[in-house]
């Protein structure tokens, strides 16, 4: 999960053409080709299920927030299910977004509620197809690294250094002939990383880390799913079986049933927030308020080599989202994964998921 720095123009939010809520093919341009050619044909059935789940979860989250907002605004009578809904919604909103509530159980920060609301609103429009179609690819294995001295496959007789000079900062360019419509066949990026004992034939997105799930290129409107992202479970309701594993509460719980239960829908909601909300993944912090970092090997554009460097650990996964909400509550409603987990929890509404696993509501 990685993002480019360009922001999607928000003016497109007003373009409206209802397509059908959560209908995968109405919301994405899909290359109808086999996986080795970058297409999603082999994954279409599972993606269709996961996208419908993602949109049903987004809708449930939107309903939950709207309920809490309208109930809070009613000075007189509360809806009959007000107390019951508070038990379901408030702890999860606190766990993911750092929400706090007054003694009546009403959100005490309308600013925070508005940020949550705005992002859910954008996601609702992603699901009805009214803010335009993005492209989705199911591998990057069709991309080939061409050194700048190679001939450009699309301009015989000319070298890459001549035809793609502005993209050659790393000594070459990535090339794929299998793209939707008029999308560019060239992509800037560092060369494949050679890993001991493993072939250096790696793509420009998924090839750097086997756990890498997906990338969103906000400037081009493209989501690329990688193997780890595609291998996750789909059909959230069927996964609700995880909810039946009773576990004693522990604040030390580090892996969560919600990560597994949400599966591919979590990834899709996450990537759509990069697209429609222009949200970036937030860093996580230690008790002293410093960013937590990790050592990784990355391409250094100054030395043109792969080198070890420190990068921020980002708030992926349930436990990191809880940490972020505790330590940086103002940043939590701007973190994509926090929305993914909140939405899945609101969709599986018989449970309090605020500890990361299911506790049945009375
Ligand atoms: Zn991300």
TrEMBL record:
Residues 1-19 form the signal peptide. The keyword Signal applies. Keywords: Signal. It comes from the Eukaryota. GO terms for molecular function: metallopeptidase activity. InterPro entries: MetalloPept_cat_dom_sf. The keyword S-adenosyl-L-methionine does not apply. This is Lysine-specific metallo-endopeptidase domain-containing protein. It comes from Lophium mytilinum. The lineage of its organism: Eukaryota, Fungi, Dikarya, Ascomycota, Pezizomycotina.
